[in-house]
Structure formats: structure tokens, C-alpha cells
Design goal:
Order of helices and strands: HEEHHEEHEHEH
Radius of gyration: 27 Å
Number of domains: 2
CATH architecture of the largest domain: 2-Layer Sandwich
Shape: elongated
CATH class of the largest domain: Alpha Beta
Largest sheet: 4 strands, antiparallel
Distance between the termini: 71 Å
Number of helices: 6
CATH superfamily of the largest domain: Arginyl tRNA synthetase N-terminal domain
Structural class: alpha+beta
């Protein structure tokens, strides 16, 4: 959906500025919002609110009629979008149809990543913190696998320093 919005905005703005399309923190600001008018205003040295209002008018002409329920300009120069119920229903049906494959893109096809995690200090007791890093590492690995990467899970046993130096020294001194 963001890409569809981006194409429409780039078409009507005729500008090569970079801009963001994002999900606002508050539902009152729409399903999506953009800072395009703010970026254009800075480049063109004009009022961002006037540009935002102009973009709203142009969107009414350029976008498919059933795409938005509402589009509005908001201070200091954002454009907020509310998608129509038909578009939301269509997106939900598409997601349901895709099932577990929804969001799966072969970004990592043919690539390998190594994920290091857990790494307990073998000279100390295990504790809950080790579980936390194990769960986080496993989740990161699963996400990468979902995206098509070959994942190598790696666990270094930590702190081979002083403790093992002492063990080796003791073995050499008292060992056989």
C-alpha cells in the first residue's frame, strides 16, 4: 500500500525530493501520513500547509476513487490518508488468502547469515539472562529463515580467559 501511495504522490508532485510515508502514532492522523509537502516546501521556499492542501486536491483527481475514505492536510504540512473500507477489506482478504506466506519475500535467497547468541560464561552458572538472549537469537534466526536466508546458528562459549589460564597453569604445575 505504501508503494501505491508513493507512486501516486511522485506522479502528482513532480519532484525529486525524498519523503516518507509512515503509519502515524495516533489513529486520529489516518492510516498513513506523509511529509512530502514539508520536504517540497523546504526546497521551493513556500508554505508547507498550502502545498499540503494542494496535494490533497491533486490526490482527489489522481488516485482511484475507491482508494481513500478521506485525505486531509494537517499542520504543519502533513498529508493524512484514511483508506476506504473496500480497500481495507480487499487487503485483509489478500492477507488471509496468502496465509503463512504473507510478507514472505526472498530477500535472502542464496545468502547465508550467521546469528550468534546465548554465549554463556562456562565458568559461571546459567541464569535467566541466558534464556532471554537465546530466545532473541532464535527469533532473529527464524525471521531470517522466513526471508529465505540460510541461517547458521552459532553459540560461542564465553570467557575462555583468566579461568582457563588458571586451570592450564594448575594442570601444568600439579597435573600428570
Amino acid at each position: 500500500m505504501k508503494e501505491k501511495l508513493r507512486k501516486i504522490l511522485e506522479k502528482i508532485a513532480h519532484a525529486g525530493v525524498s519523503f516518507d510515508i509512515f503509519v502515524p502514532e495516533h489513529d486520529a492522523h489516518g492510516h498513513y501520513s506523509t511529509n512530502l509537502a514539508l520536504r517540497l516546501a523546504k526546497e521551493r521556499k513556500t508554505d508547507p500547509m498550502a502545498l499540503a492542501e494542494k496535494l490533497v486536491g491533486e490526490l482527489g483527481k489522481a488516485a482511484p476513487r475507491d482508494l481513500f475514505e478521506r485525505v486531509e492536510a494537517a499542520r504543519p504540512g502533513f498529508v493524512n490518508f484514511w483508506l476506504s473500507k473496500e480497500v481495507l477489506q480487499s487487503e485483509l482478504k489478500r492477507i488471509a488468502k496468502a496465509g503463512e506466506k504473507h510478507g514472505k519475500e526472498p530477500l535472502g535467497k542464496g545468502k547465508t547469515v550467521i546469528v550468534e547468541y546465548s554465549q554463556p560464561n562456562i565458568a559461571k552458572e546459567l541464569h535467566a539472562g541466558h534464556l532471554r538472549t537465546t530466545f532473541i537469537g532464535d527469533a532473529i534466526s527464524n525471521i531470517h529463515e522466513f526471508l529465505g536466508y540460510k541461517v547458521v546458528r552459532w553459540n560461542y562459549l564465553g570467557d575462555w580467559g583468566t579461568q582457563f589460564g588458571r586451570v592450564i597453569a594448575a594442570y601444568k604445575h600439579w597435573g600428570k
